[in-house]
Amino acid sequence: MEFMMQAIVMTATGGPEVLVATQAPVPTADAGEVVVRAEAIPVLFPETKLRSGAFPLAVEPPLVFGFQAAGVVTEVGDGVDPALLGRRVALNTKGFGSYAEFVGAPASSAVPIPDGLSSVDAAAVLMSGSVAIPLLETARLTGTETVLIEAAATGIGSYLTQLAKEYGAARVVATAGGAAKAERARALGADDVIDHNDPVWPDRLRETLDGTTLDVVFDSIGGETARDVLALTTPLHGRMLSYGWLSGAPAQFGATDLITTGRTLIGCAGPDWLARVADSRNAILTRAAAGGIDPSVDSILPLDQASKAHQLLEDRTPLGRIILCP
């Protein structure tokens, strides 16, 4: 007998309206897999790009959408420790399937949620927090340096902003989109904030630096402004860590811009990078459980409002993670 569940199916590539609430079969755990009863599902900005067709999907729609969830393990497949049954975990799917009441995923991706941390907060922290830690480790801050964190109020930037001084930043300069996000970035620990909605925001950054330079840039915007930002880093020493393309394109400069100035570009992507991110998931959940960071939850919506959540993300209005709850 096939059991059914509520799920959000992506019917085609397109706008948020292609995410449709419907009934779908409850997944079963194949060898090496677990099934969880979802309690919290984070809505991730890259998901909006995949849904719209801006990024390619590994599987053609229709499909149950979504990449991460937190909940209680209800089934384990062959080769999986049965002690996981009944445990709360946060996990990554194989590329789809988390916008649902029950979620199947590789057991290797399941991270136990520490006592004292809600499933909502675990879901909020899992992706962005586990990226922030290896970014800060890679930057190798010395304790005297000035850093720029782009898009500092939300997502990965919000965790970079909270943790940067602990990892060795002396001054945190941030960008944020609009007054509300600028206020949020300051609350998270930024010393100075520039509105990156201003078309000439690198000029505002230059004015804020007032003759000083940046030692490290955490670049999530990319695009044409990246060359202007690179020029504000310290020659022979400045490092730009590129991990996002909020502008729609990677950083637009060439090898000559680096070679002739001794500056360094560090790409933070690919399989080896993702392995480092995965290795940081336990650490960020443990830290969140201890109260050392703000999980930055903007709002909690019912599962059937997934399309609304995507529209809010595309409007760039949330001040933190949107969580769907079945």
Automatic annotation (TrEMBL):
Gene Ontology MF term list: NADPH binding; oxidoreductase activity, acting on NAD(P)H
Name of the protein this chain belongs to: Dehydrogenase
UniProt cross-references to InterPro entries, sorted A to Z: ADH-like_C (IPR013149), ADH-like_N (IPR013154), ER (IPR020843), GroES-like_sf (IPR011032), NAD(P)-bd_dom_sf (IPR036291)
Gene3D superfamilies per record: Medium-chain alcohol dehydrogenases, catalytic domain, NAD(P)-binding Rossmann-like Domain
Keyword Oxidoreductase: yes
Alphabetical keyword list: NADP, Oxidoreductase
Domain Enoyl reductase (ER): residue ranges: 14-324
Pfam families the record matches: ADH_N (PF08240), ADH_zinc_N (PF00107)
